[in-house]
Amino acid sequence: MENVKSFFESFKEFTWDIVGYLLPGAYALILLSVCVNKEFFIHPSFGKNTKELYPFIFISISYLLGHLVYGIACLKEGILGKCSYTNKIERQISSQKAFILSKQLISNALNAKGITDDLSIASVRDLRSIAMSFIPQHDHKIYTFTFRSEISNHTGNISIIVAAFGILFSFFKSIPYQVFKTDSNYCILYTCLICCYFLLRLTRNKFYEISVGLPFSIYTANAIK
User: Fold this and answer.
1) Cβ-based neighbours of 77, under 8 Å, separated by 6 or more
2) Distance separating alpha carbons of residues 131 and 6, to the nearest angstrom
3) Residue 46 main-chain phi, psi, to 5 deg
4) What confidence tens digit (pLDDT) does each residue in 76-110 have?
5) What is the pLDDT of residues 159-177, one digit of tens each?
6) 180 in helix, strand or coil?
7) What's the predicted TM-score (pTM) here?
């Protein structure tokens, strides 16, 4: 029975991994296919079986493109440093009562086991990982909010990048290679994508705040029972 449970847990994690990369990659691929001029959009060819392989090709490229999107997000957060949304939200959480109380409770629990490490210098993420290790039954609930935050983040990044390039080519039509479509209806699309970025940013921040703060609330509630 334990082996069956372990299998389903592993399968669930594998599915989350696939979907987490596949959805942003598919969104990027579809958006590029709409906004990029046909002569610059490469269509793979495998002879007579090309049409039959299109679903596999689409899924494979989307999955690989999803990793690139994830890398862009990491690069962006690294450049922003302390100004990144993750650091800003973690600083807010570090002043909340649930975090402060859970830090004290975790420290007491570790001291009871003979572990006397100073948690005052531990980051919010470090303490979150420790808190989650005490409440593994709530992992799914917490990671659901993390997943939603990541999807919102990647979708927003794709939207703003495509919109920025689209508007750039629309304003500077003297660029030798007009990769992006610049008709008036596409300019409206690029404007909508920019608006979508700001809405998705709100969604990203909200879900990330929940995913980081929730473990401390759950741990505190369980520890003081």
Assistant:
1) 84, 85, 86
2) 22
3) -125, 40
4) 999 999 899 999 999 999 999 999 999 988 888 88
5) 999 999 999 999 887 778 8
6) strand
7) 0.86
Q: How far is CA 81 from the centre of its chain?
A: 17
How many degrees, rounded to 5, is the angle at CA 33 between CA 72 and CA 22?
50
Contacts with 218 (C-beta within 8 Å, 6 or more apart), sequence order:
131, 135, 138
Q: SS3 for 115?
A: coil
Question: 166 near 180, Cβ under 8 Å?
Answer: yes
Report how far residue 119's alpha carbon sits from residue 133's, in angstroms, rounded to the nearest whole number.
Answer: 16
Residue 106: what residue type? I
Nearest to 155 by CA among 181, 193, 190: 193
Q: What percent of the chain shows pLDDT beyond 70?
A: 89
Q: Please check whether residue 158 is in contact with residue 143, taking contact to mean a CB–CB distance below 8 angstroms.
A: no
Contact 136, 150 (CB under 8 A): no
What is the DSSP code (8-state) at residue 41? S
